[in-house]
Each structure stands twice: as C-alpha cells, then as structure tokens.
Amino acid sequence: MVWVVLGVVAVLVVVTVGYVGWRDRQRAKVADDDVAERSALSRKHRYEIERHASQGTAWNRGGHGPTG
C-alpha cells in the first residue's frame, strides 16, 4: 500500500514539473515574440524615415524624384 501512495505522489510530481516547464517555455516564447516584434517595427520605422529623407533630398536638389 505504501508503494502505491509513493508511486501516485511520484507521478503527480513528474506531471506538475512537466506542466510548469511547458508553461514557462510558452511564456518565454511570448516574451521573445514581443521583443522581436518591437525590434522589427523599429527597423521598419527607421527605414521609412531614411527613405523619406533621401527622397526629400532629391527633390530639394532640383530633381524630380530619386532619379532626377
């Protein structure tokens, strides 16, 4: 009878540790996705600013767009 109780307790511990590990990996993935999304948006915004500035410079030199 003691071995059955110890077996059940061991199974519960293994299942709990497995679930907590799985849950933490899911949280870490979501956090990484948020960081990656912010980084991608930052790069996109920086690219758009640089592109807008370069097109404005071409117009200011008297050309009609980037190819003049």
Cα radius of gyration in angstroms: 28 Å
Overall pLDDT: 80
Low-confidence stretches: none
Name the structural class. mainly alpha
Number of strands: 0
* Distance from first to last alpha carbon: 89 Å
- Count the helices. How many? 1
For the largest beta-sheet, the strand count, sense and barrel status come to: none
Determine the strand fraction and express it as a percent band: under 5%
Shape descriptor reads rod-shaped
Listing every helix as H and every strand as E from the N terminus to the C terminus, the arrangement reads H
* Oligomeric grouping of the chains: single chain
Residues in helices, as a percent range? over 70%
What report would you give on this structure?
This protein has 68 residues and is mainly α. It has one helix at 2-60. The protein is rod-shaped and about 85 Å long.
List keywords for this structure.
mainly alpha
In short:
The chain has 68 residues and is mainly α. It is built from one helix and no strands.
Write the layout of secondary structure elements.
Layout: H1 2-60
